[in-house]
Amino acid sequence: MNNIRRAAAIGAAVTATAYAAVALAPAAVAAEPAAQRATAAPKAAAAQYNGVCGSGYAVVNSAQIGTKGTVFLTYNSATGKNCVVTVRNKPGKAVHMTASLGFASPTTTVTDTGYFTTYAGPVHLDARGLCVTWRGEISGEVAGKNGTNCGSLAANR
Length: 157
What we know:
Layout: H1 2-39, E1 58-65, E2 69-76, E3 81-88, E4 95-103, E5 108-116, E6 119-126, E7 132-138, E8 141-148
Antiparallel strand pairs: 1-2, 2-3, 3-6, 4-5, 4-7, 7-8
């Protein structure tokens, strides 16, 4: 009988310890996100297409350039022209930027490169019926795509 009481007492102590640990856990978990928020850097606002390609152009593709900005590929269905613009997330001191647009055959590329505070480009190219290669660069970080957004070959006639 003594062993049964002793086992019951040990079980009660273990159960009490488990309840205490569980009771403390939510406080520790609740405190953790607040601490993380205090030390986490705020996210930069994502760059938005700024309309500099002109009237009738709509965004058909884009690529984030790390945390610095976005390169946008736009298209105007009335003219058959593509346009590329590279936009910074946060304008500031002029940095090296590039907006580039081209196609492979015949090899043609148009580029705007320099030191800009907000955006590079726009660069325009008639690429009806062709696949385009486009890219943007901000302070050494590059993004873009090769041979995408292919038009119908019938459109090139």
